Amino acid sequence: MPRLWHIASWPLVVKVPILVAGLMVTVAATTSQVVLWRFVQDQESNLGQLTSTYLDGVSAAVLPALIRRDARQVFDALDRARAAKYAGIDPNFAILELPSGAILASSDPRRFPVQGMVPGELRQRFAAGDGLAIDTNLGRAWAARTLRIEGVPVGRIFAEVDISHSLQARREILITLVLVNGALTLAFALGGYFVLKRMLQPLGVLTRYMEQIRKGRVEPIPEDYCRGVASEFSQLFDRFNAMALAFTERQTLAAHLAEQEKCVVLGRLASGMAHEVNNPLNGMLNAIDTIQTHGHDPVVLRASLEFLKRGLAGIHNVVRAALVTYKGSANPGRLTPIDLDDLPFLVQHETGTRRLRLDWNNDVAEAVALDGPAVRQIMLNLLLNACAASPIGDRVAVRVSCCDRALRIVVTDHGSGLPADMAALLHHDAAAPEPSKSKGLGLWTTGDLVRRLGGRIDVEYPGVGTRVTVNLPIGLTETLHVAA
Predict the structure, then answer these.
(1) Pick the CATH number of 10-186 from 3.30.450.20, 3.40.309.10, 3.40.50.300, 3.40.1080.10
(2) Which pTM value belongs to this model?
(3) Which of 92, 175, 318, 446 gives the lowest tally of CB atoms within 10 Å of its CB?
């Protein structure tokens, strides 16, 4: 709810119509005020002309009787003037005042008797002289005219006019302006909403395809969407498609480099595997010769068979690890404990040649939702790098565990420390050197696999050697279809 009050967070398709409606309301209110003000000015001007005409007629009718001070004739003239129908004017009463201040006659003798005085309120309205006074609250107007003969004042006429019909016209015009302007504002706002929503449909298409990037899929926008859109969106679609093509090519290149790295690793391990297979084979051949010569002795036969079983088991472990590394596991979307436990067999030649002790701790007890081949390749690359960096006769420590819905891999060596430019390859830093087939390709591939799995790599230097920590989220990544 609080975000509703932050206008900046509103969708563009809502903000623009609201802005249009606000502008329309402002323009409509200003225009209505100007129109109404102009109408009021014209109305008062017309009322002044009508009352002036009315007073002209009354003055002409009462002036002869005023000269004779004939109150009855003045009353008759005022009464006829009130009963007469004047266009646009409806008089309530008229009073003829003598110069002495006394009333000579009025159209309503009961309210204004002869020889009475003009009400002070009415007189105050014309303290400054003759003219027209309007009170919109009461819905009435008053007019005053001084009668003169040869420039000498002989009397004064006061008249009250009902202007309620004029005020009603004002209200009707105001209501009409409000309704028309409100209808136009609503129509423009709704029209702007639907028009803008239609205009921004290409932006929704672009947003939908960009959202797929977060899920690891980059697809170009189909040509059908690119046709019939504004040139600005057409150019934007072209740029996005160019980016999607470049991203796809980069993914293809990364997969190709990963495959190359797999071949490089297998090439390095080939000689070691041959040595590990050849050693038990020689012993197994000797055991077979022993069985052929002394097979009648049960003790010798049992010992020779046990030796053959251990030799075949060792060869089986090495061959299985190589096959899984080359072809991948049966379910590449799952990482099982055995996928990790057979990795030491692949590096046993490296550890044996350099007389390294491998401290292996695998705390993963069950299968987890991770790309098994990709994790195997990450660990194999880090293991080989740690073995190559460690001094002869030292040790390499590996610990794998699951915590907080993440797989944690820690590889520690006691070498001279991973150079900063090589560590930058793990993070794909812009300042990192370009990897080559002879240097840095394994680290670059490892960093790319971790990034594509949504994980993080931390490189630490605990006094002696290097500690590389990899954290991979479980169940949040898709299979990368690369060999481990």
Answers:
(1) 3.30.450.20
(2) 0.43
(3) 175
